[in-house]
Design goal:
Layout: H1 3-21, E1 32-35, H2 53-57, E2 66-69, E3 72-75, E4 83-84, E5 94-98, E6 104-107, E7 110-113, E8 118-121, E9 124-126, E10 132-138, E11 141-147, H3 155-159, E12 164-167, E13 169-170, E14 173-175, E15 178-180, E16 188-190, E17 194-195, E18 197-200, E19 203-205, E20 209-210, E21 215-216, E22 220-222, E23 236-239, E24 242-244, E25 251-255, E26 260-266, E27 269-271, E28 285-289, E29 294-300, E30 303-305, E31 318-323, E32 327-333, E33 336-338, E34 345-348, E35 350-356, E36 359-362, E37 365-370, E38 379-382, E39 385-388, E40 393-397, E41 400-402, H4 404-411, E42 418-420, E43 427-433, E44 440-447, E45 453-456, E46 467-472, E47 482-485, E48 491-494, E49 505-513
Parallel strand pairs: 1-2, 2-5, 3-6, 4-7, 5-8, 6-9, 7-12, 8-14, 9-15, 12-16, 13-17, 14-18, 15-19, 16-22, 18-23, 19-24, 22-25, 23-26, 24-27, 25-28, 26-29, 27-30, 28-31, 29-32, 30-33, 31-34, 32-35, 33-36, 34-37, 35-38, 36-39, 37-40, 39-42
Antiparallel strand pairs: 10-11, 20-21, 40-41, 43-44, 44-49, 45-48, 46-47, 46-49
Length: about 525
Amino acid sequence: MSSLRRFLLAASLLVSLVGVLGPAVVLAPAGELYVAPNGQPDASGTKDEPTTLLAATQRPLEPGSTVLLLDGNYIIKREAIPTIAWQGRSDARITLRSAPGQWARIDGGLIVQGAQYVTLRDFEVYRTRGGAHVYEHQWGRPVPKVTCGVGAENHEYKLNGQLIIAHKSRGLELINLYLHDNPAGGGIGAWNPAEDMLTYGCLLIRNGCDDRRRGHGHGAYIQNGWPKDRHGESTKIFRHNISAYNHSTGMKSYGETPGVRSTHFLGNIFFGNGMTAWTNGAANYLAGSIQGPMEDIVLRDNHFYQPDSTTGHLGGSVFLGFGSDKKIDCTFTGNYVFGGGEMALDVRHWRRFIFQGNTVYDDKRLFKVQVEPAHLADWEWRENTCYLGQDGEPVVFNGQAMDLDELRETTGLADSPRIIKHKPAGVQNYVIPNEHDPDRVHIALYNWDGKEQLSLDLGGFLRPGESYVVYSALDYRGEPLAQGTHQSGPVNLALPEDAIVGRQFHALVVHRVSPK
């Protein structure tokens, strides 16, 4: 082939590619791409010439790049939901986040599909469309109860349910996101093909809707299929998140035929989930499968709280084992489980179950347990502390109500829990650090006496002279509950009375504020 023919062929191919891909896009310096609500699709992506969020997700990015969201509200059209398919590496992730010192609010949702090693962090996603709002009062201001309109057949609910949809991806990280008030569904959909996924420090608040029969919408809906897929093992980790007032469950590990495996929940706070539904809400956490097995389900150092007078909520505060009897192993250690209405904890059909170092309280019943007697040899049940109302029943074991002595004789478990016949008293606050933001902590606050004025010991987090701001997890980035400069003593806090949990429990987010 002559040089001229080779030149013409190359030129023809270049013209064809430009026609398909459009004008060449050059990344901003240092792998940073800036996005703004009023950006332009064909802009360069510098801070002075930001592009749009939709255009940014359609650009190929080099591993290690960062997409920075400038201040403002990003309105996502239903017919143009941004889909992230960036290809990072485990040692050079691609990150989408609010720009330093700024805060982005996305009204709509995001889809992650076909992506590798992407991190989404430090921004807000909510949805103002889908569902009809019916307002009730909480803390003296209107907070929505939401009806699905036409129930489970609601078109927008079924198609665009979650604020973050994770599908066909590997190594996705969701860090310190605020996912809230979605009347068309849930917070996170972590589907089977989203492999090796981490959700850390996220707030999953008031998502879902109600069709007058039951609540729909979970803080997080987690699948992790069975058997191992073509890539080998996949683990989904949910750590140090807060999930509250979602219409169905706070988080749900669930599968139909495939089952669920390797889902781990570490240091999370759950409260009031299912309580915003008119009828038949679900648990703070639920693990289940209709036909498939379940394996390697781990819950460690979590806080679960429900008002102890509630009724009509599936599985109490924690429901371990909905559906089939093919449950292989579950580890439940170091957790705090309070309330639930009919029971605090519902445990069903595990071949191996480790229950150690937990604290459990309920006014009516602590546990409901179903297990094949042949599997009890592989159960471990030790070093737990239980609080029970004066007229409460400790446990229903395989359909029979019994006290702990009877449970010990029936099961052979060597160390049944000790029971204290009253509600806990005083104030305890558990400070949960944030590995991805040293200037942020979450607090699980137990205020058993219902005091309005509280003193919080934050000396392990704040040094004298440092400024701080305390938010309710239910109103993050709204009006602070407290702010100021830390002295040597505790931080004083006025806790408003919540319509559902009163003042007995709350979850807080505390920030150390750097001087400007």
